[in-house]
Amino acid sequence: MADEQTDHRTYRVVLNDEEQYSIWDADRELPAGWRAEGTEGPRQDCLQRIEEIWTDLRPASLRRRMEQAGA
């Protein structure tokens, strides 16, 4: 908890092609396969944003397969 209080870095919310989310230091180049979601700020703000938008934790490919199987 002390680390979070002294962490003044800026983070960004990122996601991959499977619509899986993470946070990454905003001043670092994104790893291959990841793109910025658009949210930047303190770590806790980014984690809160992920909690708001990532409601289905299944990878996108699995969701699509399950939808096709149900159709």
Automatic annotation (TrEMBL):
InterPro entries (alphabetical): MbtH-like_dom (IPR005153), MbtH-like_sf (IPR038020), MLP_fam (IPR037407)
Residue runs in coiled coils: none
Gene3D superfamilies: Structural Genomics, Unknown Function 30-nov-00 1gh9 Mol_id
Pfam families xrefs: MbtH
SMART domains membership: MbtH (SM00923)
Sequence ranges assigned to domain MbtH-like in this UniProt record: 2-52
Highest taxon of source: Bacteria
PANTHER family for this protein: ENTEROBACTIN BIOSYNTHESIS PROTEIN YBDZ
Name of the protein described by the UniProt record: MbtH family NRPS accessory protein
Higher taxonomy: Bacteria, Bacillati, Actinomycetota, Actinomycetes, Kitasatosporales
